[in-house]
């Protein structure tokens, strides 16, 4: 069996989803730090992934990118049928939820947390207001958009406890890593300490978040995110103090 190498950083949402799945399944994995954009623009990294994004998985002489695709590949190659069912209609539900996460949920959450986590993104916004308006907005501007997204999630969760079935799948791991990071226990505004989003109007979503926090290895996988938030909070306090 070839050695598996996962490139990225734990504060990356898709990276966490892949790492979480491998922890749950006890799959050995070598982690290789790749911090955007410092490491992802090098020729060596671009040889693995011309798109210059993380995460990237190396499996022998095969390399691939995109968190949901990596999750599906690992599930297929290691028989994780509980996380990624082989039955066509059950699998279709998982793919449906993954597509929703990538196309709808991730853009909404990234507008809130992206500028706080990525100084290069905040800098690009400052230099190009049009870019900020089209890609990232601040928390106040984005809450309404995420609320609309969660209204549709509430409707889905009325019929089942997880996104695609009665149990957690790779779709839940992927979606939680996007949405769960907005919980105060994991990340808050470094400058003010305030929550990034108010989940209280969304009872089914809150219950789903609780169920996902109870999944094995949740705390271990998400600890670096909390540590990064504390680092940014100390940095903001130091800057404010002058």
From TrEMBL:
The keyword Thylakoid does not apply. GO terms for molecular function: glutathione transferase activity. Keywords: Cytoplasm. InterPro entries: Glutathione-S-Trfase_C-like, Glutathione-S-Trfase_C_sf, Glutathione_S-Trfase, Glutathione_S-Trfase_N, GST_Theta, Thioredoxin-like_sf. Residues 87-232 form the GST C-terminal domain. It is found in: Cytoplasm. Residues 2-82 form the GST N-terminal domain. It holds the Pfam family GST_N_3. GO terms for biological process: glutathione metabolic process. CDD domains: GST_N_family. One of its GO terms (cellular component) is cytoplasm. The keyword Cytoplasm applies. It comes from the Eukaryota. Its main location: cytoplasm. This is Glutathione S-transferase.
